[in-house]
Design brief:
This protein is an alpha/beta fold and about 230 residues long. It contains eight helices and nine strands. The strands form two sheets. It has a six-stranded parallel β-sheet with strand order 3-5-6-7-8-9. A three-stranded parallel β-sheet has the order 1-2-4, with helices on one face. Helix 7 packs across helix 8.
Amino acid sequence: MIDVHSHILPQMDDGSTSVQQSIEMLEESALQGVDIIAATPHYYPEDEYPDEFLERRETSWIALAKAVSQSGKKLPPVITGAEVAFFDGISRSEQMRKLCYSGTNIILVEMPCATWSKSVVKEILDMPYTLDLVPVIAHIDRYMMYQKRELVKQLVKEGVIIQANASFFLRKDSSDKAVKMLKKGLIHLLGSDCHNMTSRPPNISGAAEVIKSRLGIAGLEYLRESERNVFGL
Ligand SMILES: [Fe+2]
């Protein structure tokens, strides 16, 4: 499986604090059956320019890659991306191309934790047309309490990709809802959103178990197929 959302790069954001911690997170991810992990550190447009962020990300990625190679361990490859905080004008910012998952036109967007206004929705729907980018909404589970399910259906219908966190499937109070959304085709990608090895560790396998037990192997196959479709693998 691909873990499409993680904060595994060392000293990039509020995620991994060291190369050692990143290696432990990679080891745990490998044990959980993750084949590829996308490093998606937070990008806040008010804090830095994309080029500054990319420079920091490159340094962090190289440090991790070196440590992985020195460890001699077989660990999942880390592809780069970003968790881009939504901002007014995101659909018109050419700079956003730089923040896509490497080698793709797919961008992970962290949406406002509030009911999305018409203009917010319009910007997301505009992105394929104005920038030729495919938006992935990060951790949809965070916003469901503010949106109508119909809106998510509309976004999906219009080609927006939806990512859910593994914890959505794992939490007792949300597991049913997560399974229902997956069944209805309202979740395309799974991410751990792991930040460390303690409070927010890699947890993809737990979610995979829930999906398998509730929907059978077909549920997991649907997710894999969906990963392949989105990333063109
Ligand atoms: Fe995140």
